[in-house]
Design a protein that fits this description.
single chain, five-stranded antiparallel sheet, 295 residues, six-stranded mixed sheet, 24% helix
Length: 295
């Protein structure tokens, strides 16, 4: 098992190169120079090899820690809240490297996190835990769109859709197709034709019982209400069936009553383009049978 901790846990007296080589020498098979070079290239460590850990940023330390775990030739990698000690900028820096680890090395990853956004971006399979009890486990898209599974808090609720990039427009928007429904987002860093995952937060979804007109919002999903989960407070979490899968929407119970919303009612889910952050969109293919699993 290769482990990536919340902090790098690098040997302070060794250079980046020697920290990486330390991981390599613990493996069970003979590593070639190409293994080392591939890890260094994938994690962007070329310019850091001669530095000591004290001269690295938090994000750089974590990249070295990922490389050390990878070069130990593990059966799987345990990433124990690896972004918890980083600020938002450093988190955004590290997430693409975990995507490359997932896509390029085919090593199963057990990724532990309280962040629904991180899980939505990386995981194929999710095990949702609360107080040591499994709430649900299964494919990421199913678990994350389950209104009954909100271990990270209802404010973090959101669903994930698969889509394909169809065009990049001159006004800075990218056009995606989510099972035939057009989705306009700020420029997506993926080529036309690429598959992506898009996380849409429940708090960014507005519902209308009639086809909306005269709105600035560009994204409208014809929907059917599947479930309504009302809490003790003024809010409710609604699960919506759409052509591309499921969305979640947070509304007030006053709106539920005013719009006569109930299970089976057809409506329209409206999403502002700018409400979806770049970090909520990630490259994806269907060819990820071994991970990562997120808890």
């Amino acid at each position: 098992m290769g482990v990536v901790f919340q902090e790098g846990r690098l040997f302070p007296h060794l250079s980046v190169r020697k920290n990486l080589l330390y991981g390599r020498r613990t493996g069970h098979r003979r590593h070639s120079a190409s293994d080392f070079d591939k890890a260094v290239d994938t994690l962007g460590l070329e310019t850091l090899l001669d530095r000591r850990p004290r001269n690295l940023s938090g994000g750089e330390k974590q990249r070295v820690a990922i490389g050390r775990a990878l070069l130990s030739d593990p059966s799987f990698i345990l990433a124990d809240e690896p972004l918890a000690s980083l600020d938002e900028a450093r988190k955004a820096e590290i997430l693409p490297y975990f995507e490359r680890l997932r896509d390029d090395f085919r090593v199963p990853i057990l990724y532990v996190s309280h962040s629904a956004a991180e899980v939505a971006r990386l995981a194929t399979t999710v095990v949702a835990l609360e107080e040591g009890r499994v709430l649900r486990q299964g494919p990421a898209l199913d678990v994350l769109s389950d209104a009954a599974v909100t271990p990270a808090g209802i404010r973090a609720a959101g669903a994930v859709l698969h889509a394909r990039v169809t065009a990049h427009h001159a006004d800075g928007l990218s056009e995606l197709s989510a099972d035939g429904t057009s989705l306009f987002l700020p420029r997506v860093a993926q080529p036309v034709g690429a598959r992506v995952r898009v996380r849409i937060a429940a708090q960014d979804v507005i519902l209308s019982t009639k086809p909306p007109e005269g709105l600035s919002a560009l994204n409208v999903f014809p929907s059917t209400i599947a479930t309504i989960r009302a809490g003790d407070g003024p809010g409710a979490l609604i699960t919506l069936n759409v052509a591309a899968g499921r969305l979640l929407a947070r509304v007030t119970q006053r709106s539920l009553a005013a719009l006569h919303l109930s299970e089976g009612v057809k409506c329209h889910a409206i999403v502002k383009s700018l409400s979806v952050a770049p970090d909520d969109v990630s490259g994806w293919s269907n060819d990820h049978p071994e991970g990562p699993v997120s808890v």
